[in-house]
Write a structure and sequence with these properties.
- The complex is a heterodimer of chains A (356) and B (346).
- Chain A has 356 residues and is of the alpha/beta class.
- Among the domains of chain A are: 72 residues, no CATH class; 85 residues, no CATH class.
- In chain A, 35% of the residues lie in helices and 20% in strands.
- In chain A, the strands form two sheets. Chain A has an eight-stranded mixed β-sheet, sandwiched between helices.
- In chain A, helix 4 runs parallel beside helix 7, helix 5 crosses helix 7 and helix 7 packs parallel to helix 8.
- With 346 residues, chain B is of the alpha/beta class.
- Chain B is built from eleven helices and twelve strands.
- An eight-stranded mixed β-sheet of chain B has the order 6-7-8-3-9-10-12-11, sandwiched between helices. In chain B, strands 2-1-4-5 form a four-stranded antiparallel β-sheet, covered by helices on one side.
- The chains are: A alpha/beta (356), B alpha/beta (346).
- Chains A and B meet through helix 7, helix 8, helix 9, helix 10 and helix 11 of A and helix 7, helix 8, helix 9 and helix 10 of B.
């Protein structure tokens, strides 16, 4: 296992955007690796940079994106950023494929489902129309679409939301990619359909041996699905660990806060939720110190002036970026100090924090 | 068509009572969409009623029919002693000031070209209450109540706000006319979990502060459970189960409630992912299944289910289910004790 090189190595990836307001640092130094057949979950709020991260990996950024030197994305031994457009075209679909949040906007509304699935099969695999249709039919069965022969001749608007997402999965799988990136694949769907789609992705992954990056804002979605989890906040990875380690030994206050904001069915009704007050920082500004400090209950002087790096916690594969990790004595002291004054070093009012 | 039963109704003390509500829409070529087929429920003053079900079960249609947006095909909606379906246009307009609505997508339900203070004050200006300082005060008061600083936000427009803040503005707009009832149609489905928690807490606070009665419509039972005093589970235009949220979670009696509970993603890696999954797709509401509408996707289906429609019946105190073969619940109607156990029902 040791000797094999990971499928994907992301090293100090930074993705900036040149906007009228200034340079927006959407992803600011993220590193992680992904083995063949493994699933990593990336969790964070809207605007934390998780979608930009995977778009950078796939090399499908808009033209105002800047990737400074020193950022590396090595996929199967090759740097994806050095691919020319024509090389990239052969790369997408056969090596890496992506499914998006809203299946209605990622499908072409005026083309039949069958045409949309066969498009890449014919382009990449050079299959004839007939062969491609047969393959498309097989894919439709594989992703669990009833009456597949009839559905191939239908348009996206004739399908339900869950069925449309199944079609986008079929398209993504058409050319047997080694890596599937699922960018909030179930956020637009009902909980019941969400479960169907997540179960489908898990079984397909096992069957085909693909690696997967599963992006979501809900820790509940990745808990049972990913082997490892990375938590992102304001363009940085703040904690990464094996799924079980992460849930049992949450170190970063942001991970803890995300976890606590989920309404749990086990709790009595009308249990007050621990919401995270405030909002993420404006990433156009030059940020000093820990980016979560203004919203953190434990923030101290050090958090405002000094930016914490990701460091090992001592547990294998568990890294986190907080000076006062949850569960440590420093953390308890920091909270006690803040509660005594009623205000954190970053100015968060702990008495009012309970209100919103 | 057989009604779904009314044993769960609590009589005259209710603030809002909906009886035998039917909503049908023409779908061309003489086809009819049976969006809501004879449902009944009532809401006590100060209560939060959760309506839960998948997309297409008629929960939003029910919420809108209560507001007469549009008026239901048949059935009655009584609000504070007034029959809403029989009101004249003008009386309806007046009554609606006391029943407000919040929608799923906060950004598309607000006008992007108008300033926040004008959006929130619109209800007041329609009722000619916008003159003078009291109107400004009222707008500032509700903005402040929803956690926005009036000084900062009043002159801003929507593009300067995040989704969660837009939902706060929607809530402020709903509050400005001092309504009695607010119908919240999937108010948190489009939001991140962290923001969702803020909005759920805010709704609870507003309920307390303004003495509101809420109807909370959502597809996620975990969210509904958190805010509700009573939950109605809907499927394809019918009521499946009615109970208090804690009872419903501890002892789900309807097989559909079971599936809804099993679909909630558990933020706990040691909790094995349930192998229970809802089978197939929602049947077409143009041609709904005979008998019990859930039978095409139900694990426990028998011959009786297609022949006869189950009526709501009380299987434990304040716990009603419309199923021929419900799960056993520990407390029967004749027994005593409350059904609010904490155990795991499945």
């Amino acid at each position: 296992m040791e000797s094999e090189r990971p499928l994907l190595e992301v090293e100090n990836l930074r993705t900036y955007f040149d906007t009228p307001r200034g340079i927006l640092k959407a992803v600011d130094g993220v590193s992680f690796t992904l083995d063949k057949g493994e699933t990593i979950g990336i969790v964070g709020e809207s605007g934390s940079g998780k979608s930009v991260l995977v778009r950078s990996i796939m090399n499908i950024l808009t033209s105002n994106a800047i990737i400074p030197d020193g950022s590396e994305v090595i996929f199967d031994g090759k740097d994806t950023r050095n691919l020319s457009r024509s090389e990239a075209k052969h790369f997408w679909g056969t090596q890496m494929a992506m499914i998006f949040q809203d299946p209605m906007t990622s499908l072409n509304p005026v083309k039949k489902v069958g045409i949309q699935i066969t498009e890449s099969i014919r382009y990449h695999l050079g299959a004839s129309k007939q062969e491609a249709m047969e393959r498309a039919l097989g894919l439709m069965v594989q992703v669990g679409i009833p009456e597949p022969r009839k559905r191939l001749k239908e348009y996206p608007h004739q399908l339900s939301g869950g069925m449309r997402q199944r079609v986008t999965i079929a398209i993504a799988l058409a050319c047997n990619p080694k890596l599937l990136i699922a960018d909030e694949p179930t956020t637009a769907l009902d909980v019941t359909v969400q479960k169907q789609i997540l179960d489908l992705l898990a079984s397909l992954q096992e069957e085909l041996g693909m690696a997967m990056i599963l992006i979501t804002h809900d820790l509940g979605v990745v808990a049972g699905r990913a082997r490892r989890i990375g938590v992102m906040y304001a363009g940085k990875m703040v904690e990464t660990a094996d799924t079980t380690t992460l849930f049992h030994h949450m170190n970063h206050p942001y991970t803890e806060a995300l976890f606590k904001s989920i309404p749990r069915v086990e709790h009595q009704s009308h249990t007050r939720l621990d919401a995270i007050s405030g909002r993420p920082p404006d990433m156009v500004l030059d940020l000093v110190g820990c980016r979560f400090a203004p919203r953190c209950r434990y923030a101290q002087e050090q958090c405002i002036t000094e930016e914490p790096d990701l460091f090992d916690t001592g547990q294998t594969g568990h890294r986190q970026a907080c000076f006062y990790p949850v569960g440590s004595t420093e953390n308890a002291e920091a909270l006690a100090a803040n509660q005594a004054t009623g205000i954190t070093a970053a100015g968060l009012d702990l008495t009012a924090a309970a209100v919103s | 068509m057989a009604g779904t039963g009314k044993v769960h109704m609590r009589g005259t003390e209710a603030l809002v009572s909906v009886e035998d509500l039917v909503m049908e829409f023409p779908a061309g070529r003489r086809a009819v969409v049976h969006a809501v087929s004879g449902i009944s429920f009532d809401i006590l003053e100060g209560e939060t009623l959760g309506l839960v079900g998948e997309s297409g079960c008629g929960k939003s249609t029910t919420g809108r029919a209560m507001m007469q947006l549009p008026s239901p095909t048949a059935g009655s909606v009584r609000f504070d002693g007034v029959e809403m379906t029989e009101l004249s246009k003008e009386d309806l307009r007046r009554t609606r000031t006391r029943m407000q609505m919040i929608f799923q997508d906060p950004i598309s339900s607000l006008n992007p070209r108008r300033k926040v203070k004008d959006i929130v004050a619109e209800g007041l200006s329609i009722w000619h209450n916008d003159a003078g300082d009291t109107a400004v005060q009222k707008v500032n008061e509700v903005l402040d109540a929803v956690g926005l600083d009036p000084e900062v936000v009043s002159d801003r427009r929507l593009h300067q706000f995040s989704g969660g803040q837009c939902q706060r503005i929607c809530i402020a707009r709903a509050l400005v006319l001092d309504p009695k009832v607010i119908i919240c149609d999937e108010p948190v489905s489009a939001l991140d979990v962290s923001v969702q928690a803020q909005i759920l807490n805010l709704l609870e606070e507003m309920k307390e502060r303004y003495g509101l009665t809420l109807v909370f419509i959502a597809h996620d039972l975990a969210v509904v459970k958190n805010v509700s005093d009573r939950v109605v589970v809907m499927y394809l235009g019918k009521v499946c189960e009615v109970a208090g949220p804690d009872t419903l979670y501890a002892h789900p009696a309807h097989p559909y409630t079971d599936v809804l509970l099993a679909s909630i993603p558990e933020p706990d890696p040691d909790h094995p992912v349930s192998d229970r999954q809802i089978a197939g797709e929602l049947p077409s509401p143009i041609n709904p299944p005979s008998g019990c509408r859930f039978r095409t996707r139900c694990e426990k289906v028998q011959d009786l289910c297609s022949e006869e429609e189950p009526e709501l019946r009380e299987i434990a105190p304040d716990h009603f289910v419309a199923c021929h073969f419900p799960n056993e619940v520990p407390v029967s109607v004749n027994g005593n004790g409350n059904g609010n156990g904490n155990g795991n029902g499945s």
